[in-house]
């Protein structure tokens, strides 16, 4: 083995030197060490094996291997991790794959090692040819279990039912294979959208989602299972679509996009789908699509209804329809308003369908209108969008988008991130809880906070303390962001919003508990809440 391979993931054509690999994990602060060694065995499925031949798509394997190690570090905390996979011809008894992990504690080392080797098995683009004693050979796709596949052409998805369509054909399929599609949100809308885009042969998918899987997601977010609860959605979604179509390239973004990077990310793709239940994210995506010059497919759901809008560069855009985002207190998320699981399934599928129409230049594309979908009586209604009522009054969609992004960038210091509300108190912040009484009863904050429901602000505007920073918080950060902006506009320069709201704190807490292998303890059962 090349002695320069000391850390991270690598592929080696030479025998593995375990001593060298183990030395990369040496850390005086680490007391736990775990390693996995995969050896070439002499039998497989009842047949005697003479050896194996591994073929690795090296460039993709190196990138994916490093991604897996990074996921393990994020999930299991302070660890050192090394992985290496052989390539070429190996004899019975040779070491084919090695994974080592060191950690301050043995439990994290054990679980991280298991996580890494399982991810390597299912996600690395590795093929092995079984060399049998009777002279027969057989290729097996290692990265996807024991599924056999012809090696002559690698894994080849069968798109024959699709290419038989006159408007698709082999040329259209090639266009899909070259396409790059960004999906913002891997939840109720994103799950069907990602599934169908991967299945139809999109070449590259980008997945943006900063949330983790929750039990309440499973009735509508069909990419996930109960075993995924607590895991990052973007990471798990990427695993699912890769398993569905191994030829797919996936880019994962586990943090929400912001004004500082959204346009650069959009420019990496040919088309974007907005699949969140966050109005701020929809406006950000609409603005970014205008600046990047790519189409955007928007959808939203509410209980039994949904809306769909296709935006082309130059508009009409979202701001042509609603020049400014509605007040955060007027909008209900799925958590607040409820939703039947099939509704985002239908709308997300429509988003994928509109994306394919754009990529394949199919007839029937109707930008410049809002499609209303009522799934209680199964009716569709089309509303034309008049740009003269919105962006056309202010210089056009691109000019309005540029100004909006500039203004949003100027507000980049509006949010503050903390590991807990107690940490914010220790940092000298006055805390203001904007949630309604039923929300506070369902999830007490556990700290002494001034309770001022955001719904009462219009009738009774909140007055910030004369001195000291104020941290406003709600369930998801939407209302607190609007409230902080409200206070800033009225001269209180030290008004801040808790980034991601209490949901983010819950997810961080669950992730820490998972890393320590303790059952989640939830939030504090009591809180002191004073009323003005």
Automatic annotation (TrEMBL):
Rhodanese domain segment(s): 425-514
Biased composition (Polar residues): 523-532
EC primary class: transferase
Catalytic activity: 2 [molybdopterin-synthase sulfur-carrier protein]-C-terminal-Gly-aminoethanethioate + cyclic pyranopterin phosphate + H2O = molybdopterin + 2 [molybdopterin-synthase sulfur-carrier protein]-C-terminal Gly-Gly + 2 H(+)
Pfam families: MoaE, Rhodanese, ThiF
Keyword match Nucleotidyltransferase: yes
Subunit structure, interactors included: Heterotetramer of 2 MoaD subunits and 2 MoaE subunits. Also stable as homodimer. The enzyme changes between these two forms during catalysis.
Family classification: Belongs to the MoaE family.
Protein name, per record: Molybdopterin synthase catalytic subunit
Organism: Stenotrophomonas oahuensis
